[in-house]
Amino acid sequence: MVLLDNDGFLTQLTLLLQKTRSSGTVNITMKRYYGQTKPKPKPRGGKKLQKLTAVEQEGDSRCLFRATNGKKKLSTVVNSKDVNRFQMAYANVLKANMDNLKKRDRRTEKNKAKKSKATQ
């Protein structure tokens, strides 16, 4: 997984979305980031209070954004002071490249739900 700066992530995300425009999918996830690169081992025995890391204690919230098309993986970490600027640029990238979405057909979903309830 490639950890990029915020602007580099947005440009690579644009390229990734354009490559998969005709066929394919891009999965984008966002979660809170504490700065840890390795998973914490679970405590053995009873429940023990775990000490917070330095990043968790200082209160500077960060978000980890990941994007993948199954082969290529991208990620970036956004600090709390850069969130507004990143969010505006991220929204523009998504609006520009998500023009091929299909509307869900809710009638078929309702019919399937009714049939499954009727058979039970």
UniProtKB/TrEMBL annotation:
Keyword RNA-binding applies: yes
Region span, Disordered: 97-120
Biological process, per Gene Ontology: SRP-dependent cotranslational protein targeting to membrane
Keyword Nucleotidyltransferase applies: no
Protein location: Cytoplasm
Superkingdom of the source species: Eukaryota
One annotated Gene Ontology cellular component of this protein: signal recognition particle, endoplasmic reticulum targeting
Composition bias type Basic and acidic residues, residue spans: 100-111
Entry keyword set: Cytoplasm, Ribonucleoprotein, RNA-binding, Signal recognition particle
A Pfam short name: SRP14
GO MF annotations, alphabetized: 7S RNA binding; endoplasmic reticulum signal peptide binding
Assembly behavior: Heterodimer with SRP9; binds RNA as heterodimer. Component of a signal recognition particle (SRP) complex that consists of a 7SL RNA molecule of 300 nucleotides and six protein subunits: SRP72, SRP68, SRP54, SRP19, SRP14 and SRP9.
Record family assignment: Belongs to the SRP14 family.
Role played: Component of the signal recognition particle (SRP) complex, a ribonucleoprotein complex that mediates the cotranslational targeting of secretory and membrane proteins to the endoplasmic reticulum (ER). SRP9 together with SRP14 and the Alu portion of the SRP RNA, constitutes the elongation arrest domain of SRP. The complex of SRP9 and SRP14 is required for SRP RNA binding.
PANTHER family: SIGNAL RECOGNITION PARTICLE 14 KD PROTEIN
UniProt name for this protein: Signal recognition particle 14 kDa protein
UniProt source species: Stylophora pistillata (Smooth cauliflower coral)
Chain's gene name: SRP14
